[in-house]
Amino acid sequence: MTLLETCGLRLELGGKVLCDGLDLEMGSGETWVILGANGSGKTTLLHTLAGLRGPDAGQVRLDGRDIRTLSPRTTALRRGVLLQETESGLAASVLQTVLTGRHPHHPAWGWETAADHRTAAAALAAVDLDGFAGRPLTTLSGGERRRVEIAALLAQDTPICLLDEPTNHLDLRFQVKVLELMTRLAAKPGHLSVMVLHDVNLALRFCSHGLLLAGGHHRHGRLETILDTDALEWIYSCPFREAGTNGQRVFLPA
Amino acid sequence: MRRAGATPFLLALVPLSLLFAVTSGSVHLGWTAVWHALTGRAPALDATIVWRLRLPRAGAAFAVGALLSLSGALLQVLLRNPLADPYVLGVSGGAAVAALASMLLGLGSAWVGLNAFLGSLTSMAVVFGLSRLRGPWTQTRLLLTGVVVAAGWGAAINFMLAISPGSDVQGMLFWLIGDLSFANHAVWAYATLAAGLLMSLPLARSLNLYARGELAAASLGVRIGLVRTIVYVLASVMTASAVMLAGSVGFVGLIIPHLLRLLGDSDYRRLIPDSALLGGSFLVVCDTLARSALAPMQLPVGVVTALLGVPVFLALLTRARVP
Q1: Considering only CA atoms, which of A124, A89, A151 is closest in space to residue B261?
Q2: Which of B133, B275, B287, B312 is least surrounded by Cβ atoms within 10 Å, i.e. has the fewest?
Q3: Which CATH architecture has domain B7-319?
Q4: Which residues from chain A sit within 8 angstroms of residue B220, using beta carbons?
């Protein structure tokens, strides 16, 4: 079952073509990784998939319908977005931030219910932040704040998750933990995760499908079949070598 | 799942501040005299003082304080800048130029007020138009446009102060600092306040999301273009109405929302009504002190807001954990 697809998608930024004629079908139970060098258009593509930005040609279809025809709230009930960086201008507590994830589930006015608070508490527990609910965001470390953002996404409780560098600021243990969490979610029927990662080896370990972007061109398919040293050298313009440990392929920049 | 928060306490503060305003002044009225005047059993002089002088002025002060602090709370989240106040985008500058020009031409106080209102709306339209001239606005672009337009108005104000005859300058300074001496007819201000509250309260939860950034809010289903247009227009019209009554009273719009945040009100569903209540009561108290502290001399209320507000705010700030 296809949840999210692109038809003849063309993206441009600052006069540069990031991709053209992109036809993707992302289906239930899949975890996609978008790999590409800095400035290759990964974030722009993710925002377009999320409906936060319009395509320069072609369309993005969510549940078979052009995403631009859906209301922001309908979209927010189907897909959640973890942004690469978030602002922290005005004071807010951890709990308040996580509860913002419940926004699309309610009409415009009103207060969150006891059930929302239980959802938020469970989301905080899932990223090991029990007991942080009352803390002001400003007293948290960068990695802890990243986990609060992830908890807000979990509280939004959407079948489709779009993650822009979810492992940013996280230590090694939480990089693995968060990716395990997200791939376990995506493996459920009717669910899908799409993420931008820079760690090729984590991508190989956790993701089923891949989209590679380089110089306005793209390749996509099952990750283990499209990813090899040639593909990586095409993306990153530097030599790679392949190693193997316990049957798991590992790539290292040579 | 909502806590009561500070709202009941702030609601109780409103009648207390009004009582303080009505009892204080050159003619001291006790609580019983005020009670008799309110229930129509007082001598004519007391009734005149309460009904014709002190209550209308206190009512106007409340409306101005409520409008300014609500407008400040809205602009702080719109620009996601804790330093934003109702005047940061030049609304008061446009008003001041129109008001001072009216004084220079010798127009009456009603014209000064009306022209101040029109001047602020003109400034609002100019800033809004310029910041959207090429493509959609960003908050940095809006803020820069507003600050630069405000600087332009500032130059015009200084020019008029420099060429005005000495006798006019004191009136102009009072207007610029903020003064409620001529503020009696607050019907329009209350209408604006009611409209502002009714239109901003349904947006309160969207504004909580907005504090996480525009993109994050958009990803959670907020129509950000609509929300920021409504918030910008509301904040500007509320500021214009306040300035029309009292000149550019400083400090209230910046400090009251932050005071409430320091007391734990960062949720806009509480911050919106609480800003209006505390801002209103605060300005009633300040205005009462302004007209009675050095009586028979009258101070412009803008002097008192800062004199009273700065120590209170600093005391809270140094004790708080949250910046």
Answers
A1: A89
A2: B133
A3: Orthogonal Bundle (1.10)
A4: 76, 100-101, 103-104, 156
Q: Identify the three-state secondary structure at position B37.
A: helix
Q: What are phi and psi of B145, to 5 degrees?
A: -60, -45
Q: Where are the domains of chain B?
A: 7-319
How confident is the model at residue B3, as a pLDDT? 61
- On chain A, the residues whose CB falls within 8 A of the CB of B218 are 52, 72
How many angstroms separate the CA atoms of A180 and B125, rounded?
Answer: 52
| A181-239 residue pLDDT tens | 999 999 999 999 999 999 999 999 999 999 999 999 999 999 999 999 999 999 999 99
- Chain length of chain B: 323
Kindly identify which residue of chain A lies nearest to residue B198, measuring between CA atoms: A109
**In angstroms, what CA-CA distances link B215 with A87, B19, B43, B223, B282?**
10, 47, 63, 10, 36
Chain B interface includes A103 (CB < 8 A): yes
Say if strands A16-27 and A2-13 run parallel, antiparallel, or are unpaired. Answer: antiparallel
In whole angstroms, what is the distance from residue A228 CA to residue A233 CA?
9
3-class secondary structure, B87: coil
| Contact state of A111 with B269 under an 8 Å Cβ cutoff | yes
CB contact (8 A) between residue B266 and residue A52: no
Distance CA B155, CA B149 (A): 10
Count Cβ atoms below 10 Å from residue A182 Cβ, excluding itself. 23
Residue contact B82–A90, C-beta within 8 A: yes
Residue whose entry in the numeric block shows the structure tokens 């005299």? B33
Tokens of A203: 């991508």
For residues B153 and B159, give the distance between their C-alpha atoms in angstroms, rounded to a whole number: 10
Q: A116 in contact with B at a CB cutoff of 8 Å?
A: yes
Q: CB-based contacts of B90: which residues, under 8 Å, 6+ apart?
A: B123, B126, B127, B146, B147, B149, B150, B152, B153
- Spatial distance between the Cα atoms of A57 and A23, rounded to a whole number of angstroms: 12
Using one digit for the tens of pLDDT, what is the confidence trace for A115-170?
999 999 999 999 999 999 999 888 899 999 999 999 999 999 999 999 999 999 99
Cα–Cα distance for residue pair A17/A182, rounded to 1 Å: 31
Residue (of A93, A134, A202) closest to B208 by Cα position: A93
Contacts B1 to A, Cβ<8 Å? 111-114, 116-117
